[in-house]
Amino acid sequence: MIMPGDDNIISTGGQIDAMCMALIDAAYDKNGQVRYIVSNSLFEVGKKQPKMVLSSAQYYLNKHSKLQQGHRVVILNTMERIVRESIAQIKAPLAVDLIKLASEEMTNSKEVVPEWQTAASNLLVALGCNYCNEVMAEMDKKFQPGTLPHFFVVQTMANLASANVFGMVPFLKAILGTMLPMLGMAKHDNMRWVLSTALGRFSEAVLDYVANIDKAPDPSVRKDSYSTEIFSAYDVLFNVWLRSSEPKLRLAIVDAVGQMTHLMTSERLEEQLAKLVPGILALYRRHTVQFHITEGLCNVLTASVAGQSTILEPHLEILLNALHPQVCIPPDYSNPMTVKNHNELLRCFAVLSESFCDKVITYLLQKLETANDKVRIGTLSILKHLINSQDSLMEGKKELIVTGMKIILPEIGRASCRERV
Questions:
Q1: What is the pLDDT of residues 96-149, one digit of tens each?
Q2: pTM to 2 decimals?
Q3: Is the distance from CB of 105 to CB of 140 less than 8 angstroms?
Q4: Residue 410 confidence (pLDDT)
Q5: Separation in Å, CA 413 to CA 374, 378, 404, 409
Q6: What radius of gyration do the chain's Cα atoms show?
Q7: Average pLDDT of the chain, as a whole number
Q8: What is the DSSP track for 368-389?
């Protein structure tokens, strides 16, 4: 067993040091319950003595290069928990050592080994919440022009963009410059998936940064600073990769494209809508789980109506005719994804009403005139959502809606009487 006092271990000088090393050594016990207890015990010690536990774990992993993969995963996961709990107590020298360790663990195998590499990546993201520059300096070594990076290098940068927006956005211009040529090199679905996911996360990070510009370290950052690179990436994702037969890749692309449209210029977005709207709507026929398609579409709609723009007007009818029948299908409340999709469909109508309130209301009132109960119930649920979510827009429309409702009230009354009889 490694004993405290070895180089690179930040010792407390007490008995807890030896106990910590014994716990690390026993962290992959054959008994699952024992593993759980040992991991939690290490975490509890780590909350009080993070530097000692983390440096001991780092030393142990470096010393035991042939350690079982499962043992490494348990240690890395525990290290991540300690870092998230105690990041403020971790000084830069130790952080840099841990970043190097996690980076090596993550990329040691060229093959994708999800459990091991995810644990190492999560440790890097946790460290990047306070030491983003140091993590990115390490990632930059493994993200070089002309060579496809390791899957988890891209995944780590994507997750870090979500975890530390202010830290990551300053790197995005350089990252995109390196990433764009890689898109043409990526031939396998898993690499295309992670690159698409990263582009979506990067776009979302820019939006968050700009939305909180008053708190941001660089108030000069603007969405249009990234529009050229994002449009180039969009062109590949939507016009080439979306043809894939892999459902997970298509959904990742729709999600990413939804975020990316917010960074396009209004002129570029308007040009693309003629392909973009029918292209996304066509995916409904190819997927049974439709929430991610609706979510991506809703992002496109939100970008399109920004500033009450009317660039969607030529596509409004096709959108209403595609979305309305879906709302009229009652969600399966035992299936959370159908409920989420139903709510996202309602949000699409709310977004469209921001620029086309009169046309949306007119469309819905016409649908109320049908004799189909499911259509009427679906239409009423949309109207209810609009009244509740778009109060200022709907204020002047309530009388019109009430007038439209009067058309069906007598029929509802007659149906109710027949039921009583």
A1: 999 999 999 999 998 889 999 999 999 999 999 999 999 999 999 999 999 999
A2: 0.91
A3: no
A4: 61
A5: 17, 19, 16, 6
A6: 27
A7: 92
A8: HTSS-HHHHHHHHHHHHHHHHH
Tell me the three state secondary structure of residue 209. helix
- Of 400 and 321, more confident: 321
**Number of helical (H) and strand (E) elements in the chain, helices listed first:** 19, 0
Tell me the C-alpha distance between 113 and 94, whole Å: 26
Spell out the alpha helix ranges (H) of 87-145: 92-107, 114-128, 132-141
Are the C-beta atoms of 187 and 135 separated by less than 8 Å?
no
DSSP 33-52: HHHHHHHHHHHHHHHHSHHH
Distance CA 265, CA 223 (A): 9
Q: Is the pLDDT of residue 416 over 60?
A: no
- Write the CA distances from 14 to 3, 51, 375, integer angstroms: 12, 14, 73
> Which residue do the tokens 């020298």 mark?
93
CA distance 176 to 170: 11
Residue 35 to residue 295: CA distance in whole angstroms: 40
Question: How far is it, in rounded angstroms, from Cα 87 to Cα 55?
Answer: 14
H or E element that contains 280? helix 266-281
d(C-alpha 296, C-alpha 204), whole Å: 12
**Residue 398: both structure tokens together:** 């309530």
Asked if 281 and 254 count as a contact pair (C-beta separation under 8 A), the reply is: no
Q: Cβ distance 237 to 257 under 8 Å?
A: yes
* C-alpha–C-alpha distance, residues 331 and 337, integer Å: 9
What is the secondary structure of 301-316 as a DSSP string? Answer: HHHHTGGG--TTGGGH
From CA 195, how far away is CA 201, in angstroms rounded?
10
Q: Which residue has the tokens 């995944």?
A: 155
Instruction: Give the per-residue pLDDT at 411.
Output: 59
Across 198-206, average pLDDT: 98
DSSP category for residue 10: -
CA angle 221, 210, 133 (to 5 degrees): 65
Token code pair at residue 186: 């990526």
Contacts of 188 (CB under 8 A, 6+ apart): none
**Cβ-contact 386, 350 below 8 angstroms:** yes
HSE-up (13 A, CA, CB side) for residue 371: 1
